[in-house]
Design goal:
Strand order of the largest sheet: 3-2-4-1-5-6-7
CATH class: Alpha Beta
Helix content: 25-40%
Strand content: 15-25%
Mean pLDDT: 90
Number of domains: 1
Largest sheet: 7 strands, mixed
Radius of gyration: 19 Å
Shape: globular
Distance between the termini: 74 Å
Structural class: alpha/beta
Low-confidence stretches: none
CATH topology: Rossmann fold
CATH architecture: 3-Layer(aba) Sandwich
Order of helices and strands: EHEHEHEHHEEE
Length: 188
């Protein structure tokens, strides 16, 4: 079994003069994710491998996580760019991860949500309910990579509260508004 931690980068600046790839974390995004990374470290979950997208905001998020857990190396994977399909990411991770390891990947949406959906085997309807916010961490245990079998979504960490929620970050379904019962026509 491989413990797979999917991490969405922290809150980033809206724009950068150097373009989208260079957008850094905001001061608030950095502080919030630093607290989340420390909360993650207190869980005592071992990380054997930590990879990040080459985009600045993801690299900064990975560095905060690395510092919190005492991980010496952060690898950069081109397969963590936002438009890369999760199958390509899982194929690359399958070359690097071994049974029994904890592997964290820091990336972007839409890829991170697609990777959670793929790893957890979600239906299209369930995928639409994913609410994978910036700075969240999702743990899914998988039997092997790249072929995802017997995956078990374990928990996700809310970025602001830093508490664990069992399962996946799924938005609650809103109950349809109740219609008032039809009134019979007035007699008259």
């Amino acid at each position: 079994m491989i413990r797979l931690y999917l991490v969405r980068h922290g809150v980033a600046a809206d724009q950068s003069p150097e373009g989208d790839d260079a957008r850094p974390l905001t001061a608030e995004g950095r502080a919030r994710f630093r607290r989340a990374a420390r909360a993650f470290a207190r869980l005592g979950e071992d990380l054997d491998l930590l990879f990040t997208s080459p985009l600045v905001r993801a690299v900064q998020t990975a560095e905060l996580l690395s510092a919190a857990v005492g991980q010496d190396e952060v690898g950069v994977l081109a397969q963590l760019r936002p438009a890369v399909p999760p199958e390509d990411l899982f194929a690359e991770l399958g070359k690097r991860a071994k049974d029994g390891q904890g592997v964290a990947v820091v990336g972007h949406d839409p890829q991170m949500s697609a990777a959670v959906a793929r790893a957890a085997g979600l239906s299209a309807q369930e995928t639409m309910r994913l609410d994978f916010r910036k700075g969240s961490i999702v743990r899914i245990d998988v039997k092997a990579l790249p072929k995802i079998e017997d995956a078990e979504p374990r928990w996700w960490m809310r970025p602001k509260r830093r508490d664990l929620v069992k399962g996946l970050p799924l938005a609650r379904l809103k109950k349809p508004a109740r219609k008032a019962p039809a009134r019979p026509p007035a007699k008259g």
